[in-house]
Amino acid sequence: MRAKLTNTALLICLAFLGGCATTSTLNINHINWPAPQPDEINIRPSLRQLVHDHPTLKVVLRVPNVTTNVTQSQGGQNAGAAEALLNNAYDDIEKRLFNAGFVVRDRALLSNLINERGITSYKDIQSRVDTDLIIDVSSLRFNQPQDWLLTPNYTSDDGVVGNAGTSMGEAVAYVEAKFIIVESGEVGGIVTLHVPICESVKCSYYSYYFNDGLGDVQSSFDANSTDKGYVAFKDQNSGAVVYLWGTGNGPGSINSAADIIAQKIVNALKP
Q: How far apart are CA 189 and CA 43, in angstroms?
């Protein structure tokens, strides 16, 4: 079996003490992740018929007040930055809906009617916003710990399954939304969607230890975080090294996660 453990001398061997300092590194390229929660997609025939009858369906997002849904787990940002990230994520979802052929109405107008003017009649909303469908997002999360997938199990380059001694983790973007048919006020569908980050980026780890040749061995564990889209950090509570959706661009970014979520929503509406 081809070994992937490489030894590098760091200090001059101390012959009179009978040892020499070495480091050993093991690449971990396949992680045995637990299965994420399955997506739940429930669409009623009335919504299918609405989509069929309106090829250019008019939709509007209704989103939670982002100031009440912001935590540091949205990427380790302060409240203002995290609020901006969520707003950008909603913008990305709207762009994907627009590119899929939907007519996207201004979500700020809907928020003003409901939250500030207290208008709750769907007939009034339809006349003022001119929309067929409200996509009511009740929850949108990206990096919150309750959604992480954690595992201590891996397969190394040489095919050996082992335990690295420290858990690895990946964030799972999560969204829950209802589709409300405005004309009737009927809930035409409910979806709960999950997007693990390591399905869109290669999450690779490595473990290593340092032997000073005097019987003192120190081990550690880290992640190969080279893509600017995502970040990896050591969680102090669980001790896991966790990949998070990042604030950059491209795969592994919050924008990328929002785009994947939006595509799942489009697929639910247009199977």
A: 4
Separation of alpha carbons 181 and 166, rounded Å:
48
Please state, in angstroms and rounded to a whole number, the distance separating the CA atoms of residues 256 and 115. 29
- Euclidean distance between CA atoms 53 and 266, whole angstroms: 16
Distances (CA, A) of 82 to 68, 78, 143, 211, 234: 11, 6, 11, 42, 20
The whole model's pTM is what? 0.81
Q: What is the mean pLDDT of residues 159-165?
A: 63
Residue linked to tokens 């100031």: 67
Q: Determine the average pLDDT of the residues in 123-147.
A: 92
- For β-strands 22-31 and 205-211, DSSP reports them as antiparallel
- For residue 134, give every residue at least 6 positions away whose Cβ sits within 8 Å of its Cβ, in sequence order, or none: 59, 60, 61, 62, 110, 125, 179, 180, 182
Distance of alpha carbon 5 from alpha carbon 21, whole angstroms: 16
> How is residue 251 written in tokens?
């795969």
